[in-house]
Structures are given as structure tokens and as C-alpha cells.
Amino acid sequence: MMHFMSFFPYAIAAWLFVMGLYGIVTSRNFVHLIICLAVLQSSTYVVLLSIGYRWGGVPPVFAGPPVGTPAVDPIVQALMLTDIVVEATVVALLLALAVQLHKHTQKLNPDELEALEG
Amino acid sequence: MNRTGRMVFFLISVAGFFAIYLWALRGLSPFGHYPGPYGDVLNKVAVYERHATDVVTAVNFDYRGFDTLGEEFILFISVIGATLLLRRQKSETEDGDQEDESPNRTAPAPSDATRALTLALIGPMVLFGLYIVCHGQLTPGGGFQGGVILATAPLLVYLAGDFESFKKITSHTLVEAAEAAGAGGYLLIGFIGMILGTFYLRNVFALGKTGEVNSSGTIAAISIATGLEVAAGFVLLLYGFLEQTLEIRLGGGKGGGKK
After folding, report:
1. What is the ipTM score, two decimals?
2. A72: which chain B residues are within 8 Å (Cβ-Cβ)?
3. Which residues of A touch B46 (CB under 8 A)?
């Protein structure tokens, strides 16, 4: 069990990354593409949390347990936390771009866009 | 590039990614055996140094406060960008080339069950959001999480009523001002340290008693500023997308759009 778990979270992260990338590469719709980007980015959360995890560690919050109790890494959690909120707004920005694109060209398929137009 | 070529390029890239990823994993300690030392050091000192029992918040708004400031501005600029893109374009107010294909359709009114549940939830959500923003230094929470919870309150109003009531409770000027005040507040709290002769973003406020709400000095203050910015930012995004779907496109066919 321990042996399986020693690589399983990293395998999940790789799976999310590759599947997100596959979705982006083969996408036929910008909304789908943007959601795939969000899936891809979520792989970083899994990697960060996996690196900082410790068997039997408490959360890095010492409101209950006394200072000195073995705890998981707070730094990666802090990195991840801001990342989630920032990602949500970046996804919103990209979706706004998709809305405008559809309004101006009536297209959402990346393959149908020939060249940049002013 | 055609689709086959793209797939070949993708497969080669994935093979390269796996090679590098596996190589990188060899240098990591196995899952569940965090080697430290930085996280362990912070877990030991943060409570004494900053009087904050939630070390994650202490890291975010103090130890790496400058980095979070940068991330906060990514958020700020994303919101500004999305708002700019979603505002009523010049062409849409003037002629609006997109015909509304069924101008007489009306959205079904929300059911009584939806209305009752969402109305009952609005108060608790506001309270819960404020609680999470204010207690970030003590227990899991802080400005980022609490801000998002606060932004759900206007969304609940929209679910219970319509876009008109959403607009009524989110005065656009006020929300924009809150967004700017949140982002600027974080920036300015950093300068207080410099004015007092130390460093930018140095925790110079009274640290208070560990475990109380008014503890941890600038961490609590920055958390509140962030909460304001995140809540206002998400409300602006909601406003932009709702207006885009419900008003601008519908208004387009009528050759001018409603104000």
C-alpha cells in the first residue's frame, strides 16, 4: 500500500497534465479549450500538495494542536491557495475573449481561424 | 498545422515531458515524507513570530507577502481585462448586427423552492464570508477564500430574483471602488513599514494576543484588504458575464439596446 501511494499522487498529476494538454491540442471549441487549460493547471495543485504532504502530519494550523506537532508543509498550500483564485479570474478573462471572438467572427473553433485580423 | 501533424507533435512532446518528469521525480522524496526544511521552520516559528495560528495565512500575507501582492495584481488585471472585454462595445450600442432570433421569449421565473432557499442562504453566506475573511490568521481561511464566499451573495440574489435586483444591490461604482480599495490597500499597508523606517511589507502593527481576532498585525489587515478585492472582483466578473448574456445580446436586435 505504501509503495503504491509513493507514486500514485504524482501519476495523477501527470494524468491531469497530459489529459489537459490533449484536450487543448485537439480542441474544436474555445470554451472547451479554456476548461482544458484549467484541468491542466489543476495538475500543479496535486504536485504541490503531494510534495508537502507528510504521513500523520496535522494541517499547518496550530489553533488546536500545540506548536511542534508534526505538520504538513504550509508553503505549498499557500502557493496553491492564491493560484486557485487567480486561475478562476484568468479563466474568466479567457472566456470573455471567447465571447468577443464569437461575437465578431461567429466562430469558436480554433481551426477555423485563419489569421489575425485587426 | 493539420490535425495529424499536431497529434504527432503532441505525442513527441508528451514523451519528452514524461522523460523529464520521471527524472525530476527521482530527486523527490517519496510521497508522504516531506523533507523540509522551510515548511518545518515556519511551522515552528510563525506562531511566536507573527502571533498567527494559521501558518498558511501567515506565509501568504507576511513571509511571502510580496509575492502574494504580485499574484493579487494578476487577479486585479484579469478582472479589469474581462470587464473591459465584456463592456458594451461601440458597435453594439449603435447598430447591433446580431439579430435576436426570438425576441419575445421570457425567462421562466425562479421556482418558489429556489427563491425560498436562496433568500434564506443570503444572510448566512454574508456572515460566513465575513467570518472567513476575519479569522484567516486563526483558522483556515483568509481574504481569498472569504472574498469568493462573499461574492456568492449577489449571485444568490440573482438566482432568487432577476438581473435587475442583482444590479440594484451591486452598485457598479461602489464595487469598482471596493476593488480598487482592496488592491490599493494591500499596496499601501506595505508602505507603512517603510514610513516607520523598516522594510516594505514588514509586519509593523501590534501583534496582539495569539488566538484572538485582532492578532497577527498586518496579516489580518492585508487579509481584509484581499477579501475586499476578491469579493469585488468576482462580483464585477459576474456582472460582466450576466450583462453580456442577458442584456447586450438581447438588446442588439432592437437596434440600440436597453439602457
Report:
1. 0.86
2. 34, 39
3. 74
Strand residues in A1-118 grouped as ranges (E): none
Question: Which one-letter DSSP state was computed for residue B247?
Answer: I
B23 burial type by CB count under 10 A (0-12 exposed, 13-18 middle, 19+ buried): exposed
Of A25, A74, A84, the CB nearest to B55: A74
Among the listed residues B64, B68, B70, B61, the one whose alpha carbon sits nearest the alpha carbon of residue B216 = B61
CB contact under 8 A, B39 and A72: yes
Closest CA to A98 of A113, A83, A87: A113
Planar angle of CA B199, B200, B201, nearest 5 degrees: 110
Q: Are B249 and B99 in contact (CB under 8 A)?
A: no
DSSP annotation of A66 reads P
* A2-112 fold: Helix Hairpins (1.10.287)
Task: Summarize pLDDT for A38-70 with one digit per residue, the tens.
Answer: 999 999 999 999 988 988 888 898 888 888 888
